[in-house]
Amino acid sequence: MSSLYEALFSELTEAVSHGEVVMLTNVGRFYRQDHKGHKVRFGKQDIDGYPVMKFSASPSLNRQLDSPDG
């Protein structure tokens, strides 16, 4: 099972890092979001811009979270 998870996560990360949106039916979508750089409040260095992976749950997944069955 571990190798399956690693392979899936590797494919997901690779696709999102290249700007693709990965949609999993009834689960949600994974996508890349670029954050702008900013100044550090108590320091002399600035933080450069950086990408993050975002996840947006599907409406059906959100409904399941709200149901009594969980």
Could you say how many structural domains there are in total?
Answer: 1
Q: Remind me, CATH topology?
A: HU Protein, Chain A
Question: Total helix count?
Answer: 2
Q: For the largest beta sheet, what order do the strands appear in spatially?
A: 1-2-5
Specify the CATH architecture: Irregular
- Termini separation comes to 24 Å
Secondary-structure element order, as H and E? HEEEEEH
Overall radius of gyration: 17 Å
Say how many strands there are: 5
The major sheet is characterized as: 3 strands, antiparallel
The CATH homology group name: IHF-like DNA-binding proteins
% residues in beta strands = 25-35%
Q: Sum up the overall morphology in one term.
A: extended
Structural class: alpha+beta
Low-confidence stretches: none
Give the % helix.
Answer: 25-40%
The residue-averaged pLDDT reads 90
Highest CATH level, the class: Few Secondary Structures
